[in-house]
Amino acid sequence: MIRINENFLSMEKNYLFIDIAKRLAAYTAAHPDKPLIRMGIGDVTLPLAPAVVTAMKKAADEMGVKETFRGYEDSGAGYAFLREAISGYYKTLGADVSTDEIRVNDGAKSDCGNITDIFSRDNTVLMTDPVYPVYADSNRMAGRNILYADSDESNGFAAMPDKYVRADIIYLCSPNNPTGSVYTKEQLEKWVAYALVSEAVIIYDSAYEAFITDPSIPRSIYCIEGAKRCAIEMCSLSKTAGFTGVRCGYTVIPDELVVKASDGRDVKLADLWARRQGSKFNGVSYPVQRAAEAVFTEEGQRQIRENIHYYQRNAMVIANTLDELGIKYTGGINSPYIWLKCPGGMGSWEFFDYLLDKVQVVGTPGEGFGRNGCGWFRLTSFNSYENTVEAMARLKTLDI
Amino acid sequence: MIRINENFLSMEKNYLFIDIAKRLAAYTAAHPDKPLIRMGIGDVTLPLAPAVVTAMKKAADEMGVKETFRGYEDSGAGYAFLREAISGYYKTLGADVSTDEIRVNDGAKSDCGNITDIFSRDNTVLMTDPVYPVYADSNRMAGRNILYADSDESNGFAAMPDKYVRADIIYLCSPNNPTGSVYTKEQLEKWVAYALVSEAVIIYDSAYEAFITDPSIPRSIYCIEGAKRCAIEMCSLSKTAGFTGVRCGYTVIPDELVVKASDGRDVKLADLWARRQGSKFNGVSYPVQRAAEAVFTEEGQRQIRENIHYYQRNAMVIANTLDELGIKYTGGINSPYIWLKCPGGMGSWEFFDYLLDKVQVVGTPGEGFGRNGCGWFRLTSFNSYENTVEAMARLKTLDI
User: Fold this and answer.
1) Chain A with chain B: Cβ pairs closer than 8 A
2) Complex ipTM tops 0.85
3) Closest-CA residue of chain A to B62
4) At how many degrees (to 10) do helices A286-295 and B286-295 cross?
5) CATH no., domain A14-43+300-396
């Protein structure tokens, strides 16, 4: 008789976005004359850059001609042309990542969840609270023990390691989703030192690195000395180049990342991951890889930068408004997210209802991301400039 | 200290294609004047259908315009337009599959491996020998016990259930890779009955269904009464429409497929899979989904049929030659694969070297797919017509 993986049964459903949708539906039904401004959007809204569209169409044409048709990609790790482009991009970030250390994927979320396949179940996992739910859920499915490091007002929502806490797998995300906080070089050095001492592996999610404007903030964990011996980095073109619907990202497992097996032999994590992907993944669509390659050209970089600047201007509008209102927040700079303290001691959901009812502005209650999110609230910079300005004008009319 | 998943260490490397590549490289170096004909190709060679290319380019254009841009796909299960097209296609196969039972993926290999996440580790897995290595490898990674049902000459390489063998998860592939055998309706009825009695789940790989020409052979497991209570079906556009480099497939988990948890509650496998995919997958590229939709239009079906007929003609050329030479085989009809008995009692590798040396024709030694493949050999119909004819002419010159 077949038995299911019962770890699934103990997982709470993620009600956050369902709850939000329900409340919005009820409000809209009762007030059809009051249009909402959605400032909780976690998705990009600007179209693909022209260079990206052109590259994808050219590749589609190639696939329609026998001489240029491409079938299975031999290794499934990504075509050399794209891995070389990514390796070159890392150089501009001040990190040395070779093409062989990169595997292209269909978005960071897949690898972020699937990477746990190569680790034993009995590892202890450490992640921050609040946290992007995927890190927790993919480890709960495997039945792993999870510890949380508190990200809260006292540390600027950027949790640091505690030497009395032992962990084997550490998830870090900077710029952070949902709090918009970023780790400084010194902070990342402490995490790397902690991981090396603990012989732990850091899974570093750099999906929002393109939003970093402060040149002193590392845009890759590999800007840190020693990180290649303890960290896997996952990045994505979703927010960098608006690829949320195109689906392409990349994972770096450095050659030096070697772990001892129980029989004493040295095992390269990159080899395990290649074995895993070899059996469970068949590579990324060729036209998508050509589209991704275009992102890293001079023209592509210029075009995607325009979109990022557009979102950054929105973030600035929000940050300036919060400054004016005397509301505390993290993010806004170096990040598309703004994480604010609900004014007047309101709870997350209380503030959600308040904003909806008074000014029809929608955000995301922070407690949906963990207990340290109670009393906090996430706004994003992904709406249009006009809507962002209008939403902030409405906020200023409130007695908060 | 981090511990790896040591199941990986006990997995043999898949040397088959590496070994083949080495022998070919050595032969070519020694005989640069003797060009090879590769009849072991497991990949398609004809380009995408024009309707598919047009649809993909149109979607790429949509992604470049703000009004038609698409970001994250809400459910990640596939757009309704594609799931409706697939559901409609199932009707033409005589199977009733609703849009809600379908999830679109980036190819059958991913789901085939990842589906095991929703099952407990202590299930016993049954698969045929010879077998597509992905079924075995993905379960070895999870540490599951695997039993093999012998597919051999005595049963036409179509293993049937043994009521004295207990299994919880059963992999079936028809038309079969590598043996080209197909299950009849009566045979599939026996497998479904066996699964229902054992309360087992069948994972049915129908990736080659489009090659079936005999109307009495089911092209979906759901053509069998009761299958919706015990079977998950995985299909792919890789071989149907030349999507090996485009990456799109689909998995069906019927609504009726309900399993009892240890606390007695009924759990729908589709719900577990949706939860798994919700945390570890973000949907398929929009332009790829539009390309896939085009496959199911009248024009698309007509165009992909032309390609399939081309490969079927090649298969016929091979089959006729083997008939003429009095060599036993399965497949060729209803399948792009031809699985032949090495003449003169030769072993798989012996015959490989013999063909290479005498006539420079390359195939795949059957023992790479399991012990019942010893003494057998796989040819495929994916080379050009001209090369297939030439390879068979060369075979006829041999004293076999």
Assistant:
1) 266
2) yes
3) A47
4) 150
5) 3.90.1150.10
